[in-house]
Amino acid sequence: MTSLKVVGLGGGIGASRLWKALLARGGEIDLTLAVNTGEDLWIHGLRVCPDLDTVLYALSGRQDSERGWGVRDETWRCMETLGEIEGRQWFNLGDRDLAVHLYRTGRLRAGHTLSEITSDLARRLGLGCRILPATDAEITTRVVTSGGRDLHYQEFLVREQATADVTDTYIRGPALAAPAAGLLAHIASADLIIIGPSNPVASLGPILHLTGVREALKTARHRTVVVTPIVASVPITDPGENTRARSRARLLAAAGFAADPAGVAAFYTDVASTFLLDRADLPQLPAVEKQGLRAVPTDTLLHQGADPAPLITALLARR
């Protein structure tokens, strides 16, 4: 049987849960993931790739499922020592996590590309899919607050806890940054393209910014499905999820979109044809379809212990 060629776009906690469920289908799916690098940062002299690492750890079974990020059974001796020397750290890196950043940074300094390094990490971690950084160029999502501060997205999300009002976001980096080698070809040949349940502005915006990606998705629009990152009718109780939801809402508002399923659909109206809406938000189906996408209700939440089967079935029915 020929495997279904699937390309997944996005990164972070929500998308990694979906990619893990797809990967569990084994040889039925030939999976290629293009992961956001707009949140990458240099800290303590190391290149840290939050979305890439979240995907690598989730798919390899190493992720701390309680926090949704980082490595399980982590230790923090390096951060404790840095705290003694410099004071409190706003961006914490566990000891096992640091090993990955040391490896990545050493190879970058030796002249290897982020794509090469990520491919090798995926192989060493035993992953059965392709993982591409969206680009080998260094691009960064910047957030401008109402107080006039210009922050790296991670500063806004982690240090500031997404509490400031946002007036603008922009991508810092090469104006014509190229996507990772092979990404456009994978999009062109895919049977199904999935825009994951990630922050539209912070996680997908940098991918759509890359030369040729938006145009490629417009051509493949009839094969592209959005999984909603917002379930408006289900209350959020986890503090981390609350911070991420606040960030998503503030960034969407700054870009001129509502922080609801219809607003997300409007964000993707030119690059996707189908929108998977959570059943809890069924009353919003007409508003989503007014944005020009076909809305399909299903169970989209993939929190710990949730059955991914309804969502995967709905996705594979879109091919």
From TrEMBL:
Residues folding into a coiled coil are none
Which of UniProt's keywords are assigned here? Answer: Magnesium, Transferase
Keyword Disulfide bond (UniProt)? no
Task: Extract the InterPro entries matched here.
Answer: CofD, CofD-like_dom_sf, FbiA/CofD
The UniProt GO MF terms for this protein read: LPPG:FO 2-phospho-L-lactate transferase activity; magnesium ion binding
Q: Which domain of life is it from?
A: Bacteria
Q: Which Gene3D superfamilies match?
A: CofD-like domain (1.10.8.240), CofD-like domains (3.40.50.10680)
A Pfam family: CofD
PANTHER family, alphabetized: 2-PHOSPHO-L-LACTATE TRANSFERASE
Q: What is this protein called?
A: 2-phospho-L-lactate transferase
Q: Which organism is it from?
A: Streptomyces sporangiiformans
